[in-house]
Amino acid sequence: MKTRKPTVYFVLLQLLFASFTYGQLQGFEIVNEPVDISDDFYDFTNTYYIASELRDFDPATARGKIVYQRYEYSTRMAFNNMLGALSPVEQNEFPANEYEASPVLPFYLEFISDKTIRIRAKSGFDRYDDEESLMLANGFAQAKEPWNYSHSEGVHVYSGGHGRVEIVESPFQVLIYDGNGRLLTSTNTLRENSGTFTPTLPFSYVRRASDYSRSFNAAFNLQPDEKIFGLGESFGTFNKRGSKVVLFTDDANGTQNETMYKPVPFFMSSRGYGVFMHTSTPITCDFGKYISSVSALMIGDEELDLFVFLGEPKDILDEYTELTGKSPVPPLWSFGFWMSRITYFSEEEGRTVVNLLRKHKIPSDVLHFDTGWFGVDWQCDYTFAADRFDDPGKMMSDFREQGIRTCLWQLPYFVPRNKLFGELIENDLYVKNDKGNLPREDAILDFTNPDAVAWYQGKIRGLLDQGVSVIKVDFGEAAPYHGIYANGRTGFYEHNLYPLRYNKAVSDITREVTGERIIWARSTWAGSQRYPLHWGGDPANTYSAMSATLRAGLSIGLTGFSFWSHDIGGFVSKTPENVYRHWTPFGMLTSHVRSHGAPPTEPWEYGEDFMDAFREAANMRYELMPYIYAQAHDCSAKGLPMLRALFVEFPEDPGSWLIDNQYMFGSDMLVAPLFSDEKERGVYLPEGNWIDYQTGKKYAGGWHHIVAGEVPVIAMVREGSAIPHIRLAQSTAFMDWSVLDLKVYGDVEGIASGKVVIPGASLETVTLIRDGKGYALEEIPFDGQVKFRIR
């Protein structure tokens, strides 16, 4: 068995990381640049059809038609300043009597639940009236009977237990209220814009002069002080009010820019509603950037399909994930520590690392082989390199005996020198260009082709059958935008869906072979949360990138993803020890945790003192495993993120809506990472009392300056919480779940409570009542299988 020579190894690294001097430039129209469609809505050559009035509305079905009036942009010179405005125009088709000057097109509402409304509109002929959608958990959204109907002059009203919808006939407008009658939002009308000199495009669609294609502008009014959150793994500002957000999957090449590996066409508002833009086309959202009072959802699709959810953040997430799917709980071992780097090249290296993890008592559950386990770098052929892996099956079996699972890297792009390249071409398994050839030099697997999926899953199956536990689903953001896919669609509809199809293909075959729903993926679209889990891309090794990573985690958690991870210390180069030391507990207090990136990443490579600190943070996580596992089950059932914004738990607390550098880890722990070399920081605590997890010191709600404990992070526990702990083990495989400690935080009168689950059982909420100076369980859960020690 051979081990890769160090000289070759470091040449590879230099070539690899030299690429990070380049990034995805914006505005240059280069390959896979995110498509911003907003210019099409401010183009003097295009025609704009503004929703004018509602006709032929049937209250029983909530269906009618919208009359659209034609407009174009015109100019006016005033005081040496050229102004633009929308002006009505006559039709320009010939013969005129064959085409509608003012199109009358379908509009309808559907009532999905007592908290969810669907708004649909057409811009022309549409043969796909209600086709199955991969973004929806069940393929379709089943409509229920309309809410209670009433009518006043020119206004149709539907009232439910949690809100009200009004449809004004002229000028056409949809208004949405909460259950208390408070206006949440409304579509923007031309009449509302007459009082401003800023030309604003109201609720409408555009017809492009270049190709006659059509796209919707779903313009809604924003309320003063309204805040907008979500839209996927966004590294920019947490509150998107005042921002323009482009939803187009992209290899972001880092975590400090505006593009996203994981865009998701869903957002929620501080006003008490959320919106899912049900499409896979490019989307550009202007949340009050152009004009502060209007949210313009510029959607590439020629059909408008919006789901609007009402309620508090938890209600909204529950409703959204009922529609698009909840994240199943990944296997217990996945919640352990994942050890990785760029990259381990051989069985010998893998065995050495596993043995050192055990020698140094670093609790761990997964070893990941990145780009070096097959024969030729970057030419993944789904076969272990025979000259460097004597017996990969036995290696992985031995690892399991040591409590370690194996993860392998791969990607869906095949370079011309890959020995599988010809097989893909011969069997017609690739995305094509207009002529049927390759749109790029690589052959890019076409997941809309069932034969391609079967071929690919066969390759993955072979690895899983050997003993691999999980596949790294890397890349997936570069599906050709102008490509032709086997289902007959172009990248305009398939580019953003590619990650979802990719996630599903690997997750499905993994579940079929191993019985476990687990992948390690980078790219997503709406619905990908059904195929956990995902990690946050390739951050720089800096505190700034660490901070941006947290904002991204908060944002993706607000789009239905319960489970998420990030590379501890960053990815690009060797991590500075100070950054690695502070990033480690942030990672350990995330749903899933991995060290990965440029070497070295192994804690013993940074010296004894650092290794001791790393071990202390890892020990903390492993002792908290019952809490982590219980919170995972709770999140899965409710569509909640394990790493969640404070306002998810405390929606009535105004300060919680302003915090983007702290998070709730589950329902009962608050975490404030350290983003500098300082050992203390300002921390905002929502209303109530909080206990420092490390020091036991008690704090009231409000702002505090807090010094971190021995582990360099500030972790607080809600007073009255019972946090389950387990005896430390070096792997989740070796944990003894028959004895758990329930630690009650705070000296509370009355009761304390917490969530507990054990492998193979259902989630329980345990209640503890005061018993003298201590506490006692009100009821014994799990039929007495577990001995609880209350502390």
Briefly characterize the structure:
The protein has 13 helices and 42 strands. By secondary structure, the chain is an alpha+beta fold.
**Radius of gyration (Å):** 27 Å
What is the overall number of helices?
A: 13
Content of β-strand: 25-35%
Point out poorly predicted stretches: 3-21
Helix content bin: 10-25%
Q: Care to count the β-strands?
A: 42
Estimate the global geometry from the Cα principal axes: globular
Average pLDDT score: 95
Provide an overview of this structure.
With 791 residues, the chain is α+β, with helices and mostly antiparallel strands. It is built from 13 helices and 42 strands. The chain is globular, with a radius of gyration of 27 Å.
Topology:
Blueprint: H1 6-18, E1 47-58, E2 63-78, E3 81-88, E4 104-111, E5 116-122, E6 148-152, E7 155-159, E8 163-168, E9 173-178, E10 183-186, E11 204-207, E12 214-221, E13 228-232, E14 244-247, E15 263-269, E16 273-277, E17 283-287, E18 294-299, E19 303-310, H2 313-324, E20 337-339, H3 347-359, E21 366-369, H4 392-401, E22 405-410, E23 413-414, H5 421-426, E24 443-444, H6 450-466, E25 470-473, H7 491-494, H8 498-514, E26 520-521, E27 534-535, H9 543-557, E28 564-565, E29 567-568, H10 577-588, E30 593-595, H11 608-623, H12 625-638, E31 643-644, H13 646-649, E32 663-665, E33 669-672, E34 680-692, E35 698-707, E36 714-718, E37 721-726, E38 739-745, E39 751-756, E40 764-771, E41 774-777, E42 787-790
Parallel strand pairs: 20-21, 20-30, 21-22, 22-25, 25-26, 27-28, 29-30, 38-42
Antiparallel strand pairs: 1-2, 1-11, 2-3, 2-4, 4-5, 5-19, 6-7, 7-8, 8-9, 9-10, 11-12, 12-18, 13-15, 14-17, 15-16, 16-19, 17-18, 23-24, 31-32, 32-33, 33-36, 34-35, 34-36, 37-38, 39-40, 40-41
Helix pairs in contact: 6-8, 10-11
